[in-house]
Amino acid sequence: SQTIHQWPATLVQPVGSPLSLECTVEGTSNPNLYWYRQAAGRGLQLLFYSVGIGQISSEVPQNLSASRPQDRQFILSSKKLLLSDSGFYLCAWKTGFGEAFFGQGTRLTVV
Amino acid sequence: QKEVEQNSGPLSVPEGAIASLNCTYSDRGSQSFFWYRQYSGKSPELIMFIYSNGDKEDGRFTAQLNKASQYVSLLIRDSQPSDSATYLCAVNLGVILTGGGNKLTFGTGTQLKVEL
Q1: Phi, psi torsion values for B82, nearest 5 degrees
Q2: Average pLDDT in the A61-78 region?
Q3: How far is Cα A107 from Cα A100, in angstroms, rounded to an integer?
Q4: Contact B12, B115 (CB under 8 A)
Q5: Closest Cα partner for B13 from B86, B79, B62?
Q6: Contact (CB, 8 A) for A23 and A3
Q7: How far is CA A64 from the centre of its chain?
Q8: Which of A27, B41, B77, B107 is deepest in the core (most CB within 10 A)?
């Protein structure tokens, strides 16, 4: 069966510091991978998605970037965090039928 | 108009009652519809999906889809305190993402409280 791992679970970072969140998927090959952000009391916002190694598409312009160095690895990064980057970050993979499965999430607080 | 709309709640129902959660969507080209449950501080988990008009039942859960009215709902029978969570409606819009695949868009969720 497919599993998705995401870490760390919780992160507190100062404004201006860099960020790297990692997500890996097991049990499937060439998955479509997604990064979502959920701000407090708000819905899930699609940030980036990837259909293959090195292929990244951005949904919204922002302070973040994403990379996919390996088939089952998806990384979310920032060079300098802003207060507005705080939120709950979720990595997901999507099946051919369209349903998405999520990792455990990373709660990021920028202070 | 939001692409996927839900009443934020909270919706309070007594234990054993039927909870009815509703969702509307704007894109008539939408193909597939999902309900996720999210406990506080946790990631969403898929509980139901529906592709065709009508009802789909899975245990205590029933999803209902009406494409003409652009409406999808989730009924939870015999509600339990463990059902207390936020329920997210998600829709694969007719929008095709660059590189393939439909855009999966989420509503803001309805908070359900099942009271003893």
Answers
A1: -70, -10
A2: 92
A3: 19
A4: yes
A5: B79
A6: no
A7: 10
A8: B107
Count of alpha carbons within 13 angstroms of residue B10, beta-carbon side: 11
pLDDT in tens, A70-104: 999 999 999 999 999 999 999 999 887 788 999 99
CA-only gyration radius of chain A, Å: 13
Q: How confident is the model at residue B84 (pLDDT cuts 50, 70, 90)?
A: very high
Cβ–Cβ below 8 Å for B98 and A52: no
**Across-strand partners of A109?**
A12
Please tell me which of the candidates A42, A43, A51 has its beta carbon nearest to residue B100: A51
- From B30, which residue of chain A is nearest by alpha-carbon distance? A98
Tokens of A96: 């051919």
Beta sheet of B71-76, edge-to-edge order: B4-5, B19-25, B71-76, B61-66, B54-58
Place of tokens 């309900």: B35
CB contacts of A42 in chain B (<8 Å) are: 108
Q: Which residues pair with B64 in a beta bridge?
A: B55, B73
Q: Where are the beta strands (DSSP E) in chain A?
A: 3-7, 10-13, 19-26, 32-38, 44-52, 55-58, 65-70, 73-78, 87-94, 100-102, 106-110
For residues B24 and B3, the answer to whether their CB atoms sit within 8 Å is no
Contact by Cβ (8 Å): A73, A54: no
User: What is residue A83's three-state secondary structure?
Assistant: helix
Size (chain A), residues: 111
**B43, B49, B107: residue with CB nearest A105:** B43
